[in-house]
Write a structure and sequence with these properties.
- By secondary structure, the protein is α+β, with helices and mostly antiparallel strands.
- It has one domain: Endonuclease/exonuclease/phosphatase (Deoxyribonuclease I, Chain A, 4-Layer Sandwich).
- Helices cover 17% and strands 41% of the residues.
- The chain has a four-stranded mixed sheet with strand order 3-4-6-5, with helices on one face. A three-stranded antiparallel sheet has the order 7-8-9, with no helix packed on it.
- Strand 8 and strand 9 form a beta hairpin.
- It starts with a strand and ends in an 11-residue tail after the last strand.
Length: 133
């Protein structure tokens, strides 16, 4: 993904993947995410609907592979929701993570370009239309 920073001023190369996994509990889902990460080599991976109350470094390593990484998560509520954001620490420096009922945010900079960013990982159930009401 090529992100434009400013209006025609600078271009910042970055790779970001976002996916709704409808649950990370099964081994097959984890294999699919790991293959996606291997294929796309993202700087940042945003996962929606993990349906997991706790996400730890072991799980993130099983998805991310051997590359150094950082992560932040927002736990599921019962059997729904759940967000995870994983990033490559050799490409991305994260200064702050924050979470709310429907989002997970990271704030930092791309190491090579020095460009600052905010990335929001969002999930809102289709029946809960807060964005358009």
């Amino acid at each position: 993904m090529l992100g434009v920073v400013g209006v025609g001023v600078r271009v910042c190369n970055m790779r970001m993947v976002s996916c709704n996994v409808c649950g990370l509990g099964g081994l097959e889902k984890r294999k699919e995410v790991k293959e996606l990460v291997r294929e796309k080599a993202p700087f940042v991976l945003c996962i929606q609907e993990t349906k997991m109350g706790v996400i730890d470094d072991f799980l993130c390593s099983s998805l991310w592979g051997l590359t150094e990484h950082g992560f932040s998560y927002n736990p599921s509520q019962g059997t729904s929701r759940g967000l995870a954001t994983i990033w490559n620490t050799s490409e991305v420096e994260v200064w702050l993570t924050a979470r709310g009922e429907h989002f997970l945010m990271i704030h930092g900079r791309f190491i090579k370009s020095g460009e600052e960013f905010y990335i929001f990982n969002l999930y809102v159930n289709n029946s809960y239309n807060i964005l358009f009401n």
